Amino acid sequence: MDTRRECALLLLAGAVLLAGVLSVELAGGTVDYQALGVAAGLTLAWLLAAFTLRRAGHGGDGLLLPLAAVLTALGLIMVLRLKPELYFVQALWAAIGLAAFLAAAFLFRRAERWSEYKYFWGLAGIVLLLATALFGVDIGGNRNWLILGPVHFQPSEFAKLLIVLFLAAYLSERREVLTFATRSFGPFVLPQPRVMAPLLAVWGLAMLMLVAQRDLGAALLYFGTATIMIYLASGRAGYLWWGTGMFAVGAALAYALYPHVRVRIDIWLDPWTDPSGKAYQIVQSLFALGSGGVLGSGLGYGFPRLIPEVHTDFIFAAIGEELGLAGAGAVMMLYILMVYRAFRVALLAPTPFRALLAGGLAVLLALQVLVIVGGVTKFLPLTGVTLPLVSYGGSSVVATFILLGMVLAMSERRPADA
Amino acid sequence: MLDNLRGAVRRTAFVLLGLLAVLFLYLSYIQAVEGDYLAGHSLNRRTAAAAAKVERGAIYDRRGEKLAYSEQDASGRYVRHYPYGAMAAHVVGYTSPRYGQSGIESAFNGELSGMTNPERRFGPITSLWRAKAGNSVTLTLDGDLQATAYKALGRRRGAVVAIAPRSGAVLAMVSRPAFEPETLDDDWQAIVGAADSPLLNRAAQGLYPPGSTLKVMVAEAALAEKITDKRKTYTCEGTLKIGPDYVLGESSGRAHGKVDLEEALAVSCNVTFGRLALELGRSRMAKTFDRYGFTRPLGGEIAETASRLPDFSRLGDGDLAQTGIGQSSLLVTPLRMAMLAAAFANGGIILKPYLAAGVTAPDGTALKKFGSSEFVAAASAATAAEVNGMMQTVVREGTGYAARIGGVKVAGKTGTAENPHGEPHAWFIGFAPADEPVIAVAVIVENGGGGGDVAAPIARQVMARALR
Q: Which of A250, A268, A371, B371 is the most buried (most CB within 10 A)?
C-alpha cells in the first residue's frame, strides 16, 4: 500500500470524525468550533504521523493507522455525545496515543533487542499489577487505578503488553522443551515444571486480580492470552486443555466463594428475573441495542444515558442505539480487520519471537473485543473491560496505540531481517 | 520449526476471527430480529422518554376549554394535566408511561404525541418529521354539559350520553364511578381492584337490558310494517298469556284497559308491546334491529362494545314478547339508546356519533376537520314524526313527566329494566325541543329503580342545561 492511499484512508477517518462531531453538535443545537478545530487538528496529526513514518522509510502495514483512526474517531464522537465535558481530555489522550504509536513503531523495528530484557519486562508487569493490588484505588467499581500525583492511570492496561512481551521472549527460547519434554504417566501427559511455571504464574496473577480487584475481565484476558501463547509456542493443543481446566477450577472457586461473581453469571443466564435490579445494566444495554435496530436513532436522538457507565464499558451499546446495526456492525468489522492484520504479521514473521509477539498481541486484542462486545450483548457474562480505542479512558487508548505501534513495527519486511 | 508455529497461529486466527464473526451474527440477531421486541418491551423507558421530550398536544372541548394539556415541571419534564379530572376521564382518557392510554388520548395518540410516524426502520431520517410539540385535538364535547351530567348522576353508578341529533356530535359522555386521570399511576392498584370497575366507560361499553325504552322502536316498527295504526286499540288485562305456560305481566300488576298505541307508550304497557312483538314476528323484529344499526359497528374514535341481540330464528314466543319490551337476553349500551332517541329527533335518520371535531397543529393551522355522516336511515320521516309525537305525550302525560321543562316540548321514554343484579336499572331516553331538537340523551342509573323517578330528572337537568 502506498502512502497516497494511506493518506486517503486517513482523510476518510477525518471526514467521519468531523461529520460525527458536527452532527452531535447540530443535534444538540449549538456548534462549538473548538471541538471541530480539535477534530481537524487530530486529522492533521494522523496525516503527519503517516508522513513521518514513510519519510523515515518505515515500510509497515499501511492499514493499521487508518483502522485505528476510524475507531478513535467513533470513540471521540460518542464521548462528545455522551459526556461532552470529557471530549477534549479524550482528544488529548488520542494525540498522546498517536505519539506513543509512532514511538513504538520505531522502537520495535528491532524487536529482538527488547527480548534481551525479558525478565525485567516480566517483573515490571508483575510489579505494576501488584502495586495496583496493594495501592489500587476504586474508581467506578474497579479497584485497578493508581494515582501518581495528578495522573490517574490503570496499570493493568500497560502490564498486559509487558506480560505479552515477556511471554513471547521466554517461550520462543524454550519452544523445544515445551514441545518435546514431557513426562508420561500412562495416558496422562505432564509437562516439565519449569515449562508450566509461567502458566502457573500468570494463573496466580489472574486469580489475584480476581480476588483483590474484582477485575474479572482483566483476569480472563491475561489468562486467555497466556494460555493461547503457550499453545502457539508449543503447537500442542494439550496446553489449551490445561489452561481451560485451570481456568475452570478458578472460575468454579470464584463462583462458590464470591457473591459478585455468582451474580454476574446468574444475570447472564437469565437477566429477566431481576431486570430492574441486578441485571439493570445488561437489560438496559439490550434495550439500547434493540431500540437502535438496523439504522439506529441517529446521533443525539437516542437515550443511551439510561445505561449506567455508558461512556466506558457500555459505549458499544450506545453506538448500537444511535448508529444502529450499521454502526455497531462497522465497528465489529473494523476490529475483525485489525485482528486479521495483526495475525497476518504473525504469520509472515521471520523469527519465532516476532511471530509469538505479534500473535500474542493479536490474541490480546481479539479477546478484549470478544469479552466486552460479548458482555454488552449478553453473548458472554459481563466483565468490565474497555472497548479498545473507543471507550473513554486514557490508559486504554494509549496502551492500544502502543500495541498497534508494536504490530506496525513488526509488519515491516526489511532485507535485514531475512 | 517456524512452520509449526505458523500452523498454530493460523488455527488460532481462524478460531478467534470465527468467534468474532459469530459475535457479529449474534449482534445482528439482537438488533435486527429481537429489535422490535426489545424496543417495545414494557420496561424499556425509551418510548416514554421520547414522549416526555415532546409537548403532548392539548385536548379542547367545543368552546376551546382545556380538557387535557401538558406543562413542563421544574425539571423540564412534561406533565399531563386534566382540568375536568374524573368528570371527563372516560372520554378524554389517560396516558401513562406504565399503563398505556385510553379514550381520546389513545385514539389520537399519534397526533397528540407528535409521532404520527414512529417508524423505526427508517432510522435517523425519522428525526426530520419529528415534531417539537404534538397536535391538539378539539372535541365536540361541551365541558359545561359534561360537568352538569356528572353532577346530576351523583354518586350513583351509571352513565349519561348526550348527542346533537342533527349532526351526531357527542355533547356529553359521562360514566360513574370514574377515576382521576392525573394520579392514575399512583391509584392504579386501587382502580383495577375496585369491584365497580371505574375504568369501564359505561356510556359506550356498559351492556344493559334497555327495558321499556326500546318500546319506541317497536312502536315505529309496528307502524312501519302496518301492523297497527294510531286508531287501533288494544285491551290490557294486566297479563299476556303466551302459549301454555308463559305469562307476561305489567310491572305495576295493574291492567291498563283499552289503550291505543300512543296511550300504551305513555303508560308503558307491557301487554300491548309484547303483543306487537309477537305480531311483528321473529324476522321483522330482527330486521328492525338491523334498521336501527344495532348490528353495525360504529368504528372511529369511540370505543364501543357491540350490542348483544338474541338469536331471533331460535327465539321462543315468550322471549320474543320479552324482547319487545326490552328484556329477554337483549343487551345494549347507553350510547346506542341515545342514538335511538336521536333517530326520532332527526326524521328517522341516525347520524354517526363522533367525538373529535378537528386536529390543529401547534402553530394554529387546522389540519383535519371532522363532520357529520349518516350512519343509518332507520325510519321514514312520517313514522318518525308519529313516534316523536307519541314520545312528547310520554313526557307531557305519561311516565316521563319528571323530564318536563317549562316552555319547551320534551319527548322521551322511561325504562325500568329488570336484571339479575338486584334492583332494576333506571332508564330515560329523550330529546328536546321536540319540534327543533338540539339534544338527544340517554340516561341509565344502575339498579337505580324506576326510570321515571330516577333517570328522567337527570335527563331533564342535562337537557335544560343544553337549552339554556
A: A371
How many angstroms away from the CA of B118 is the closest CA of chain A?
11
Diameter of chain B by CA atoms?
A: 122
- Report the residue from A175, A275, A291 with minimal CB separation from B46: A291
Edge to edge, the sheet with strand B366-369 lists: B78-81, B66-72, B59-60, B136-139, B356-360, B366-369
DSSP structural state of residue B353? P
Is-cis flag, bond preceding B297, omega within 30? Answer: no
Residue A415, helix vs strand vs coil? helix
Is any Cβ of chain A less than 8 angstroms from the Cβ of B7? yes
Spell out the residues 6+ positions from residue B354 whose beta carbon is closer than 8 angstroms to its own. Answer: B140, B168, B169, B170, B300, B301, B302, B370, B372, B373
Instruction: Answer whether B282's CB lies under 8 Å from B227's CB.
Output: no
- State how far the alpha carbon of B60 is from the alpha carbons of B63, B84, B87, B106, B360, in Å: 8, 11, 14, 15, 10
> Cα dihedral sign for B279, B283, B289, B292?
negative
Does B25 touch chain A if contact means CB atoms closer than 8 Å?
no
H or E element at residue B247: strand B246-249
CA distance B386 to B292: 17
| Cα within 13 Å of Cα(A330), Cβ side | 18
Instruction: Give the other-Cβ count within 10 Å of A62's Cβ.
Output: 23
User: Which residues contact residue A387 at a Cβ distance below 8 angstroms, ignoring those fewer than 6 apart?
Assistant: A75, A313, A315, A316, A369, A372, A373
- Which residues of chain B does A175 touch, with a Cβ-Cβ cutoff of 8 Å? 1, 5
Integer CA distances (angstroms), B120 to B38, B45, B48, in order? 12, 16, 15
Query: Which helix (H) or strand (E) segment is B414 a member of?
Result: strand B411-419
Question: Rounded to whole angstroms, what are the CA distances from B390 to A99, A381, B28, B216, B436?
Answer: 99, 79, 72, 9, 16
pTM higher than 0.80, yes or no? Answer: no
A328 interface with B at CB cutoff 8 Å: yes
Is A176 buried (19+), middle (13-18) or exposed (0-12) by CB count in 10 A? exposed
Which of A287, A333, A343 is nearest residue B13 as measured by Cβ atoms? A343
Long-range contacts, A127-136 (Cβ 8 Å, 24+):
A128/A155, A128/A156, A128/A158, A128/A159, A128/A162, A129/A155, A129/A156, A129/A159, A129/A205, A129/A208, A129/A209, A130/A208, A131/A155, A132/A156, A132/A213, A133/A208, A133/A209, A133/A212, A133/A213, A136/A212, A136/A213
In eight-state DSSP terms, residue B236 is E
Enter the ipTM.
0.93
Q: What is the DSSP letter of B44?
A: -
- All domains of chain B, ordered by start, with CATH? 145-467 (3.40.710.10)
How far the first Cα of chain B sits from its last, in Å, is 106
Packed helices A324-348 and A315-322: angle between N→C axes, nearest 10 degrees: 130
CB nearest B43 (choices: A228, A232, A283):
A283
Cα–Cα dist A39/A255, whole Å: 45
Mind listing the pLDDT tens digit of every residue in chain B (468 residues)?
677 889 999 999 999 999 999 999 999 999 999 888 888 777 777 877 777 777 889 999 999 999 999 988 887 778 899 999 999 999 999 988 778 789 999 889 878 877 654 555 666 776 666 667 888 999 999 999 999 999 999 999 999 999 999 999 999 999 999 999 999 989 999 998 898 999 999 999 999 999 999 999 999 999 999 999 888 999 998 888 887 778 888 877 788 999 999 999 999 999 999 999 999 999 999 999 999 999 999 988 999 999 999 999 988 899 999 999 999 899 999 999 999 999 999 999 999 999 999 999 888 889 999 999 999 999 999 999 999 999 999 999 999 999 999 899 999 999 999 998 889 999 999 999 999 999 999 999 999 999 999 999 999 999 999 998
